[in-house]
């Protein structure tokens, strides 16, 4: 399938460590784009479809401690393949703006680096599950490890049900994740924009908006 056949819309993803604010920032951007008249589709990884939501529950359930890293990796890509087929590609073919809360970069950071499975195996599965689909632009909300852990702890105190299996990893795991994200952004500067996620949500949203309009002038926003 050629790139032209695969999509006519734009595919934007939000990435970053837990607590970086990507979910909030994606929602704020979606609202702003809709006010500007764009047809926006929001999705999430893992999840995005009924099948994906079932996989998400398995992956994030804190009682599923026996899931091995390889099984975890395959489940993430199973959810992604379903999301691409059912939501992302049809929306792009219809000329819509698709915003995704995480995509393959998360798997490279969390499973490839964090779980030490390596980039090669992730790339192999990416070809099978994604068929070459990559975001047009990726917003990486960068925060330091201390901020990430503090925000996750604060969230779990106020929303006990928000805690997930991934929250139980140690500091070294998350340091590998952050370093992997930074390497990805350095290797693909034409696709990544890195925004400091430590500020107030409104200030971060303005930085995201400025980056978007500078990098994607075809949006005419």
Can you characterise this structure?
With 221 residues, the chain is α/β, with parallel strands linked by helices. Helix content is 56%, strand content 12%. The chain has helices at 3-6, 22-35, 50-60, 69-93, 104-114, 119-130, 145-158, 171-187, 201-215, and strands at residues 10-15, 40-44, 97-101, 137-142, 192-196. Helix 5 (104-114) runs antiparallel to helix 6 (119-130). Residues 1-6 have low confidence and may be disordered.
Topology of this protein?
Layout: H1 3-6, E1 10-15, H2 22-35, E2 40-44, H3 50-60, H4 69-93, E3 97-101, H5 104-114, H6 119-130, E4 137-142, H7 145-158, H8 171-187, E5 192-196, H9 201-215
Parallel strand pairs: 1-3, 1-4, 2-3, 4-5
Query: Alpha-carbon distance between the termini?
Result: 30 Å
Helix share bin: 55-70%
Q: Uncertain regions: pLDDT < 50 for 5+ in a row?
A: 1-6
Bin the strand percentage: 5-15%
Number of strands: 5
Quick recap of the structure?
The model is unreliable at 1-6 (pLDDT under 50).
Key terms:
221 residues; Rossmann fold; five-stranded parallel β-sheet; globular
